Amino acid sequence: MTTLPRPTTTLTADDARRIALRAQGFLGAPDRRAGVRGVLRHLGAVQLDTISVLARSHELIPYARLGAVGRRTVEAAYWKTPEHGASAAPHAFEYWSHAACILPVEEWPHFAFRRRAYRDRPHWNHQLPDGVYDQVIKQLRTEGPLTATELGGAKRTSDWWDWSGTKVAVERALMYGEVVCVERRGWKRVYDLAERAIPDALLHDELDDTECVRRLVRLAGEALGVGTRADIADYHRLKGEQVEAVIADSGLVPVEVAGWSKPAWADPAALAAPPRGRHRTTLLSPFDSLVWERARTERIFGFTHRLEAYVPKQKRVHGYFAMPVLAGGRLVGRVDPAREGRTLVARQVTLDGAKAVPAVAQALVEAATWVDCTDVRVERVDAPELREPLARELAVLLG
Hints:
Helix 2 (about 35-45) packs across helix 4, helix 6 crosses helix 8 and helix 12 packs across helix 13 (about 240-245). The chain has 17 helices and 15 strands. The longest helix has 16 residues, at about 210-225. The strands form 4 sheets. It has a 5-stranded mixed sheet, sandwiched between helices. The chain has a 4-stranded mixed sheet with strand order 1-9-10-8. A 3-stranded antiparallel sheet has the order 2-4-3. It is about 40% helix and about 20% strand. The protein has helices at about 15-25, 35-45, 55-65, 70-80, 110-120, 130-145, 150, 165-175, 195, 200-205, 210-225, 230-235, 240-245, 270, 295-300, 355-370, 385-399, and strands at about 10, 45, 90-95, 100-105, 145, 180-185, 190-195, 225-230, 255, 265, 280-285, 325, 330-340, 345-350, 375-380.
């Protein structure tokens, strides 16, 4: 068993919270020159999801850090788009990290261990018909980037899980790394050959499993600022034993955090200077990497967060797509939003007391402006006595 160094730094719980906020881009001035692409590189992974209420999650994540970024600007920052020309390389690729995520293209070599694991996988949920895999690769080579529908069909029936042989083949090729998702078009993946989409220097930079995991552990530590081994493993969904084997020589340093029951590791750069600067006030996607791991969110913020979109309606507590509200470095409430024409509707609002009213109102109005809504309507406030103060605050902000 590896002997790990003893921590020489002790952090308070508030220190750890502020370090995490700065690492995630919510404390201090954002790097607006680097824009959306800078947010992606900084976080290392931006989770995708099919749900779209205000916007899709991969749009909400840069918005939460940078403010009102145009949605076309977001897409162009991630993907190779038509205006870049046919020969342009993508800035990112989609692959399995924390979940289905957009990843910086320069991290392609560090997911080689996962591509190899998929190739060695003994069984799959979908059967692959004979000859279809080679046919898909040949068609992409001949015709260029295509969706599954353009390749011959995504589904055999209307059931979401009933994939066609073509869809099975192209998804298998994606997992193996022979094919890359180079953009989303109308939420459909657009596939191209990796040999065409990934720069040669990255495509052929095959690292062994240990090198891959060590790099991802370091990246996770930098993105989190400070975290337990479980936090770090969860960021890119690594196995605990994989993290255990490399963390001592990952470049992260052991620290103690008051109130944390498990050992922690920190990015040394995060310890070099105390976190200072302006706190962001914003709505957060439930899939934002600041809050995507429930146990960490509870430990750092004392806030229990659960996505209820897949919970039966009668059993929901906070709403279909309840978005945590971040203000002053704390999670101060939740909003379950919807849109009706040019009105942002807050179907359900939960507030952490009267002191949270101005921040929640500010977050709602900024979000409304971003999605071209001119009004905000609140339907329900869990604390009825705060409904009128919230309405007054919104009226002032909306002018």
